[in-house]
Amino acid sequence: MQAVEARRNPPQSPSASYDPARMVPLGYDDTDYGTPAREGAAVTLTIDGREVTVAAGTSVMRAAIEAGIMVPKLCATDSLDAWGSCRLCLVEIEGRKGYPASCTTPVEAGMKVVTQSPKLAQLRRGVMELYISDHPLDCLTCPANGDCELQDMAGAVGLREVRYGYQGQNHLKDAADESNPYFMYDPSKCIVCNRCVRACEDIQGTFALTISGRGFGSRVSAGQDQPFMQSECVSCGACVQACPTSTLQEKSIIQFGQPDHTVVTTCAYCGVGCAFEAQMKGSQVVRMEPYKDGHANEGHACIKGRFAWGYATHRDRVLKPMVRDKISDPWREVSWEEAFGYAARRMRELQAKYGRDSIGGITSSRCTNEETYLVQKLVRAAFGNNNTDTCARVCHSPTGYGLKQTMGESAGTQTFKSVEKSDVIVVVGANPTEGHPVFASRMKRRLRQGARLIVLDPRRIDLVDGVHVKTDYHLQLKPGTNVAVLTAMAHVIVTEGLVNEAFVTERCEAKSFQQWREFVAREENSPEALEAASGVTAALVRGAARLYATGGNGAIYYGLGVTEHAQGSTAVMAIANLAMATGNIGREGVGVNPLRGQNNVQGSCDMGSFPHELPGYRHVSDSTARAVFEQAWNVQISPEPGLRIPNMFDAALAGSFKGLYCQGEDIVQSDPDTQHVAGALSAMECIIVQDIFLNETARYAHVFLPGSSFLEKDGTFTNAERRISRVRKVMEPLAGLADWEVTQRLSNELGYPMNYAHPAQIMDEIARLTPTFHGVSFAKIDELGSVQWPCNEQHPDGTPIMHVDEFVRGKGRFLLTRYVPTDEKVTRKYPLLLTTGRILSQYNVGAQTRRTENVRFHDEDRLEIHAHDAEERGIREGDWVGIESRAGQTVLRAKVTDRVAPGVVYTTFHFPESGANVITTDSSDWATNCPEYKVTAVQVTLVEQPSQWQRAYRNFRQTQEGLYEARTTGAEAAVK
Ligand code: SF4
Ligand code: SF4
Ligand code: SF4
Ligand code: FES
Question: Does the pTM of the predicted model rise above 0.85?
Answer without folding.
Answer: yes
